[in-house]
UniProtKB/TrEMBL annotation:
Keywords: FAD, Flavoprotein, Oxidoreductase, Transit peptide
Gene Ontology molecular functions: fatty-acyl-CoA binding; flavin adenine dinucleotide binding; glutaryl-CoA dehydrogenase activity
Any one Gene Ontology BP term: fatty acid beta-oxidation using acyl-CoA dehydrogenase
Pfam family, any one: Acyl-CoA_dh_M
Ranges where the Acyl-CoA dehydrogenase/oxidase N-terminal domain occurs: 22-134
Domain Acyl-CoA oxidase/dehydrogenase middle per the UniProt entry, residue ranges: 138-228
Protein name, entry field: Acyl-CoA dehydrogenase
Length: 393
């Protein structure tokens, strides 16, 4: 029943969450939204079709301060808070998961470990160049035999004088073929340790993975280490054990909890506009109860996800965020977004299978997002362990 006196709500912000953001946070969101609208959306469908990453966008992304945005300014960072970083991820993934993945890897998986676990010399050498987009990094943890059990790592590093000799392989590595450096985690006689492996080091090679049906506008690669000699000065000195790479993944997963909301918003927006203009049986399909129920459910799920990540971001900024909370949000929000992408594709009918519309592209991308940095099952079991106190892995 219509109410002519009511105020119209924003269909993709039904609880006016934007009003809960600070002026700085709104400015960040608006800036990245404008970049996505003007620079990403006009080209990303073609990039996806051709299977290429838009390299020309890297300087612009860096100029906006989106690389290492949370790090101190002395290392090239913009000193943004966690909510701002989340909004960056949301707006970039509204464009494409591949663009958000590039920024997530550079910021959370490469710059963060150098900042958190590296020496001051490493921070000064690498971070300002990475913030400027002049040095691109990748994160070498997942291996060909399986990704959900990092403790079963095969890549190893042996001490040889003042150097380390690394042998092994990594798989499904975002930015691998672009990277100037790789943050590589390897087993040593003193536990798992991290190393900065530089392109050009003898025995280090990368090979891009093709025939992908997901994250096509992103570079995904294999890394190979054949007796790669790495100086001890390139070892991250301030962490040992799995807490190093898992700490990096918590940072990146936090961004992923926000990103899929952007993809879901893009799908809902396109589906709702199509529903208003697609005429069947002498009326728009948006006038049918079946379609309105689907759109309403999309809006409900997006709203819940938005509230979830805003609280998660506030907890992170207060220093109170726990990994289980990140797992819950990644599980919920990735599932939310992939379901919405599929429903939006259905509303679009046959038109929805082309990249002229975004849902099929977002849906395919989200097949990767729901898998990487902890599958849905892994995160469900993390929450289950928290509830029961029993490890079911």
């Amino acid at each position: 029943m219509a109410d002519s006196g009511r105020l119209n709500l924003n269909p993709v912000d039904l609880y006016d969450i934007r009003s809960m953001l600070s002026d700085d946070e709104r400015m960040v969101q608006d800036t990245v939204a404008r970049f996505t609208d003007e620079r990403v959306l006009p080209i990303i469908g073609d990039c996806f079709d051709k299977g290429v990453f838009p390299l020309d966008l890297i300087p612009e992304i860096a100029e906006l301060g989106l690389l290492g945005s949370s790090l101190p300014s002395q290392y090239g960072g913009a000193e943004m808070n966690a909510v701002s970083y989340g909004l960056i991820c949301q707006e970039l993934e509204r464009g494409d998961s591949g663009i958000r993945s590039f920024v997530s890897v550079q910021s959370s998986l490469c710059m963060y470990p150098i900042f958190a676990y590296g020496s001051e010399e490493q921070r000064v050498r690498w971070l300002p160049q990475m913030a400027q987009g002049k040095v691109i990094g990748c994160f070498g943890l997942t291996e060909p035999h399986g990704g959900s059990d990092p403790a079963n790592m095969k890549t190893h590093a042996k001490k040889d004088g003042d150097d380390w000799i690394i042998n092994g392989a990594k798989m499904w590595i975002t930015n691998g073929g672009l990277a100037h450096i790789a943050i590589v985690w390897a087993r040593t006689d003193d536990g798992i340790q991290g190393f900065i492996v530089e392109r050009g080091m003898k025995g280090f090679a990368t090979r891009d993975i093709h025939r992908k049906m997901s994250l096509r506008a992103s570079v995904t690669s294999e890394l190979f280490f054949d007796n790669v000699r790495v100086p001890d000065a390139n070892r991250l000195p301030n962490v040992k054990g799995l807490k190093g790479p898992l700490g990096c993944l918590t940072q990146a997963r936090y961004g992923i909890t926000w990103g899929p909301i952007g993809a879901a918003i893009a799908c809902l927006t396109e589906a709702s506009e199509y529903a208003k203009t697609r005429i069947l049986f002498n009326k728009p399909i948006g006038a049918t109860q079946a379609v309105q129920l689907k759109l309403a459910d999309m809006a409900r799920r997006i709203t819940l996800a938005q509230l979830l990540v805003l609280q998660l971001g506030r907890l992170k900024d207060a220093g109170k965020m726990q990994p289980t909370q990140v797992s819950l949000a990644k599980w919920n929000n990735c599932r939310m977004a992939i379901d919405i992408a599929r429903e939006a594709r259905d509303i679009l009918g046959a038109a929805g299978i082309t990249t002229e519309f975004c849902p099929i592209r977002h849906g395919l991308n989200l097949e990767s997002v729901i898998t990487y940095e902890g599958t849905e099952t892994v995160h469900q079991l993390v929450v289950g362990r928290e509830i029961t106190g029993i490890n079911a892995f």
